[in-house]
Design goal:
Layout (H helix, E strand, L loop, with lengths): L1 H18 L8 H16 L5 E4 L2 H8 L2 E4 L9 H5 L3 H7 L4 E5 H11 L9 E11 L3 E10 L6
Parallel strand pairs: 1-2, 1-3
Antiparallel strand pairs: 3-5, 4-5
Helix pairs in contact: 2-3
């Protein structure tokens, strides 16, 4: 019986990794976020402030102050999420760049920024493709605010 459990566990783990749903050091999403973070550390000024909804990898490897925008680790953003005015929060906190999965960033900012034209205030400065759950393609982007001090 123990041999059967070990065999089933090993085969399940291998299949999960093959499908890209296993969390590991080379998971496609994590690798793409890591590449974005290392680009940020090399190519942005040291006083840059990065905003991200998936902030863990970006925060750790970018060596830049990073503000979590999803409310999980930063409760101060929750009123801005509820009020659908994240763009005001971004300006008030001096966030100079956004770094995240492009589709998630677009959806969240479209719904919660409070500014229909939010993309016009950003310029894409880095992008990399990645995969998630095996064959789902993702694009990680870093966007720079054109004028971080503007209202």
């Amino acid at each position: 019986m123990p041999l059967l459990l070990i065999t089933v566990s090993a085969l399940s783990g291998l299949e999960a990794f093959r499908l890209g749903v296993a969390d590991g050091p080379f998971h496609g999403l994590h690798l793409a976020l890591y590449e974005a973070a290392t680009w940020i550390s090399r190519q942005t000024p040291p006083d840059s402030v990065i905003g991200s909804f998936n902030a863990g990898t970006i925060s750790y490897f970018s060596k830049r102050r990073t503000v979590n925008l999803d409310g999980a680790m930063n409760y101060s953003v929750i009123p801005a999420i509820r009020g659908r005015c994240i763009a005001d929060y971004i300006r008030a906190n001096g966030i100079t760049h956004l770094a995240d999965v492009e589709s998630q960033l677009d959806t969240i900012m479209d719904d919660f920024s409070g500014e229909a034209e939010w993309p016009r205030t950003y310029q894409e400065v880095f992008a990399i493709d990645g995969t998630f759950h095996g064959d789902r393609r993702l694009r990680i982007v870093v966007l720079r605010r054109e004028n971080p001090l503007a209202p």
